Amino acid sequence: MIEQVKKHVKSLISTGKIAGFLGLRNDEGVVTPFLFQQPEDVDAALSLGDLDVPGAARYPMAKLAMRLLQNSQDDSIYGVLVRGCDERALNELKRWNQLGTTDRLIKVGVACPEELAKDHQCRKPFPDEFVAGEKVSPQPNDVVTEILAKDLDSRLAYWLGEFNRCIKCYGCRDICPVCFCNVCTLGDDTLVRTGDLPPENPMFHLTRAVHMAGRCIDCNLCTEACPADIPLRTLYKRVAEIIADEFGYVTGEPGEGKSPLNILGPEPGHTSAND
Amino acid sequence: MKKLLEFSGIDPERLVLKWVSSAEGPRFAKVVTEFVEKIRQVGPSPLRPKKFSGEELTEKAS
Question: Who has the most CB within 10 Å: A23, A33, A171, B17?
Answer without folding.
Answer: A23
